[in-house]
Design a protein that fits this description.
The complex is a heterodimer of chains A (153) and B (165).
Chain A lengths: L7 E5 L4 H7 L9 E6 L12 E4 L8 H18 L3 E4 L6 H10 L2 E5 L10 H9 L2 E3 L3 H7 L9
Parallel strand pairs in A: 1-2, 1-4, 2-3, 4-5, 5-6
Chain B lengths: L1 E4 L7 H13 L5 E4 L12 E2 L4 H10 L2 E5 L2 H10 L3 E4 L12 H9 L5 E3 L3 H13 L14 H15 L3
Parallel strand pairs in B: 1-2, 1-4, 2-3, 4-5, 5-6
Helix pairs in contact in B: 1-5
Chain lengths: 153, 165
C-alpha cells in the first residue's frame, strides 16, 4: 500500500559462505526496511546504506559463547523489532530464531547449499524454532519433510 | 598472481603449508594468502589473517588463479567473478572441519566450468603450475542472485508476514 511504512526485516548469517548465500537473496528483500547481522565488521561495505550489526561466533555446544551471542542478539532484536527474520545459518543465528519465537517474529531458516547430503545440525534445531525451514537440495528437504524452493546458485 | 584463501572461519594447516611450499619453489610467481585462523605462518608468500570484503573481491578479480578450500563462499564468489579456481576440500578426519561437507560440495559442484578439484597437496602443487600455464576455459559468469525459484519462495514467505491471512 502506498504511504505505508516499510516493514522491518532482519537478514542474518554467519561469516563466510553463509553470508555470501544471504547476499544472493537480496532481490527478494525489495520493499522491506532491511537490517543485516553477521560476524565481521568489514562486511558492512557489502550492504551500503543498510543498518549492520555483528555477533560473535559460537558453536551450539559452547554455552558461554552462545550466551554472549544471546545477549548481543537480544539487544539487536529489541532495537530493530523486526517483523520478519531470514537466515542462511549457521548456529549463532539460532539465537535470533529463539528470540523471534519469544517475541512473535516470523522467521525463515534456509539451510546452506553446502549441506548437500544431510540437513545441518543447526538446521535440525532451526526446524523446531523457525516459522518455516527449507533446504536447498530436494533430497535433503524430502528426508526432513520440509520444503525446497530451489537454491542460491 | 595467485590468490589463495582458506575462507574466513577455520584454520587449514595442510592448505597453507602446501601453498607456501609452492611459493618457495616458484619464487617468480606472486602469491598472496588469506590464512584465517591457521597456526602456520607462510614464510615464502605475503599473507593476512582476514582482509576486508572489498579487498578480497579485488584480489579475486585481479588474480590469475584462485586457490581455495571448498567452501561455498569461495565457490560462489569465484563463479561470480568468472575466475579459474583450484579447490582442496577440508577433511573431517584430519580436523580440518566439523563434517565432510566440503567433499560433498566438490562432488556436486566440482564439474562446473572454471573449477578444478584436487584432494592432495601434491596434486595441488601440480595443478597450480599447470593452471597458470594453461588456464581453464570459462563459461559466462553466474548471476549474483539466487535462483528465481528460491527468490520467489522467499518473496512469498515475506508476503505472508506482511499480510497475515
Amino acid at each position: 500500500m502506498a504511504g505505508t511504512p516499510k516493514k522491518r526485516l532482519l537478514a542474518i548469517a554467519s561469516g563466510g559462505g553463509h553470508w555470501i548465500e544471504l547476499l544472493r537473496l537480496r532481490p527478494a528483500f525489495e520493499g522491506w526496511d532491511v537490517a543485516y547481522v553477521s560476524m565481521f565488521e568489514n562486511y558492512t561495505s557489502a550492504v551500503p546504506g543498510a543498518r549492520y550489526y555483528t555477533v560473535p561466533d559460537a558453536s551450539r555446544f559452547d554455552k558461554l559463547a552462545f550466551g554472549k551471542v544471546m545477549v548481543k542478539a537480544a539487544g539487536i532484536m529489541l532495537r530493530e523489532r523486526p517483523h520478519a527474520i531470514v537466515t542462511t545459518g549457521s548456529a549463532p543465528m539460532l539465537a535470533f530464531l529463539l528470540l523471534g519465537r519469544m517475541m512473535g517474529t516470523k522467521s525463515l531458516w534456509i539451510d546452506s547449499i553446502a549441506q548437500a547430503e544431510e540437513m545441518s545440525s543447526s538446521g535440525k534445531v532451526a526446524k523446531r524454532l523457525a516459522t518455516t525451514a527449507i533446504a536447498q537440495w530436494p533430497e535433503v528437504a524430502a528426508a526432513e519433510e520440509i520444503p525446497c524452493w530451489g537454491a542460491v546458485l | 598472481m595467485i590468490f589463495a584463501s582458506v575462507g574466513s572461519m577455520l584454520p587449514f594447516e595442510r592448505f597453507v603449508r602446501g601453498v607456501d611450499e609452492w611459493a618457495r619453489d616458484n619464487p617468480d610467481e606472486a602469491v598472496y594468502i588469506q590464512i584465517g585462523g591457521t597456526e602456520y605462518e607462510p614464510r615464502h608468500a605475503p599473507f593476512t589473517r582476514m582482509m576486508p570484503m572489498t579487498e578480497y573481491r579485488e584480489r579475486l578479480r585481479t588474480c590469475d588463479l584462485f586457490v581455495a578450500h571448498a567452501g561455498m563462499g569461495s565457490i560462489l564468489q569465484a563463479l561470480e567473478e568468472r575466475k579459474q579456481t583450484l579447490m582442496l576440500p577440508r577433511h573431517q578426519e584430519w580436523g580440518e572441519h566439523t563434517t565432510d561437507h566440503q567433499i560433498h560440495t566438490v562432488e556436486r559442484f566440482g564439474h562446473l566450468s572454471g573449477l578444478r578439484v584436487v584432494d592432495s597437496v601434491e596434486d595441488m602443487h601440480r595443478e597450480m603450475t599447470g593452471l597458470l600455464a594453461n588456464p581453464l576455459g570459462m563459461d559466462t559468469a553466474i548471476s549474483d542472485q539466487a535462483s528465481p525459484e528460491l527468490l520467489s519462495g522467499v518473496r512469498g514467505f515475506l508476503a505472508s508476514v506482511r499480510a497475515p491471512s
